[in-house]
Write a structure and sequence with these properties.
21% strand, 230 residues, seven-stranded mixed β-sheet, 7 strands, alpha/beta, 48% helix
């Protein structure tokens, strides 16, 4: 399954940002900013951005930790990491403060208690073992560190859930089809059906040891941010 998902993200890399704009009605950058804010980066700190994709959140974190801090952007798609690196060279002057790492979030190549905070944008839904992924995140965070995990969410409201499904079927998949990546985006709906709801995410976070966990529904419950503290 991991190899299949890695292959999907390698294939969609060229149209990833364009599709994210359509997927989110142009709002994903606002939601990513919310996740950054909740993770509370401070100047000089070392931060981690998991499933960094094309680097939006990584760059946002880098701007906040500044020239004296450091951010590690981690993804298992080599194509997306190459895109992220290219974008960062155009948009961010302090290249030495960002390290791009090709790695699996289920087996992070970092020491325990290494990071002052972390983010994950649209990644938790795609890992094959969510509790283990949260355990790895817990391991690499310093005591009292915060992390914010942004992802799609099935709304509890039946009408909003119907709208979300209609939008995925009638807007997202046709656009993906036009861009030649229909199969790659058709998986979003089944992945959402498997994904734990907000309160279940909170329970999983407590089970792996986090001291506090809160799930914030955003975009009428069609997105959510899980905020945890070690």
């Amino acid at each position: 399954m991991t190899h299949e998902i890695r292959a999907i993200f390698d294939r969609i890399a060229p149209v990833y940002d364009q599709l994210n704009d359509w997927l989110s009605l142009g709002q994903h950058r606002i939601w990513k900013e919310m996740a950054i804010k909740w993770s509370n980066p401070q100047p000089g700190e070392t931060f981690l951005d998991l499933c960094c994709g094309s680097g939006d959140i990584t760059l946002g974190l880098a701007r906040r930790v500044g020239a004296t801090g450091h951010v590690y952007g981690v993804d298992f798609s080599a194509n997306l990491l190459a895109m992220a690196q290219e974008r960062s060279q155009r948009k961010y002057p302090y290249q030495s403060t960002i390290t791009w790492v090709e790695a699996d979030v289920l087996d992070l190549p970092f020491d325990s208690n290494q990071f002052a905070g972390a983010t994950m944008g649209y990644g938790l839904r795609n890992v094959k073992d969510i509790p283990h992924s949260l355990q790895e995140l817990y391991r690499v965070l310093k005591p009292n560190a915060k992390a914010a995990i942004l992802d799609f969410h099935r709304p509890e409201n039946a009408q909003l859930r119907s709208f979300q499904q209609w939008y995925l079927d009638n807007v997202v998949v046709p656009i993906a089809t036009q861009l030649g990546v229909k199969e790659e985006y058709a998986y979003i709906s089944p992945s959402l059906d498997r994904f734990p709801m907000g309160k279940e995410q909170v329970e999983l976070a407590y089970e792996v040891g986090f001291a506090s966990a809160t799930h914030y529904p955003i975009a009428n419950g069609m997105m959510g941010v899980l905020v945890v503290s070690k």
